[in-house]
Specification:
Blueprint (H helix, E strand, L loop, with lengths): L1 H16 L2 E2 L5 E2 L3 H8 L17 H11 L5 H4 L3 H12 L5
């Protein structure tokens, strides 16, 4: 997969940098070495961080709701007083 990304990156850089005029007057595409010299060895590809993705805020909230055994929480949010009691209960959890 990395090789395909590198090929794509080189193709884009050749388009951006344009052709080179050779000594005999003909135009040619830049070689990989010429592109490396221009980029000064910088790799433009981004890398993903290792490990599992970090939890989102929403994932934390859903875990709290699950640990409190709140059923039908979407319906409870429609009733302001009932939802307020759920929030107060969540504040007393050991994690918070």
């Amino acid at each position: 997969m990395i090789n395909k990304l590198m090929i794509f990156e080189r193709k884009i850089m050749r388009k951006i940098l344009g052709p080179t005029r050779s000594d005999n007057g003909y135009w040619r595409i830049k070689t990989n070495q010429e592109i490396n010299d221009i980029l000064q060895g910088q790799n433009r590809m981004s890398k993903r961080p290792t490990g599992r993705p970090k939890l989102r805020w929403e994932d934390d909230i859903l875990e709290d709701i699950k640990s409190m055994n709140v059923c039908n929480w979407k319906n409870i949010t429609q009733n302001r007083d009932r939802w307020k009691s759920v929030v107060e209960q969540a504040r007393t959890l050991n994690r918070l």
